[in-house]
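Open question from group meeting: does this chain pack into something compact, or does most of it stay loose? Before anyone orders reagents, we agreed to write out a predicted structure and look at it together. Recording both the input and the output here so the notebook holds the full record.
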Amino acid sequence: MEIKITTPFIKLDQLLKFSGLCSTGGEAKDVIFGGLVKVNGEITVQRGKKVYPGDEIFFENQSIKVI
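Structure tokens returned:
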């Protein structure tokens, strides 16, 4: 899946909500803190991590490419 952003970056928890992979911010926070999300192949537990165009997020066998 590709997600287009019009800002220089988007925070990881906001991206998970925007993409529809998480329905609430609380759910996004829980899956991030649970170590279930990878950014560019590395597990991250930073909910406010800045994600830039070109980054790839992996969660629940789904891949999100930020463009």
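Observations to bring back to the group:
The beta strands are 2-3, 10-11, 38-39, 42-43, 50-51, 56-59, 62-66.
The two ends are 10 Å apart (CA to CA).
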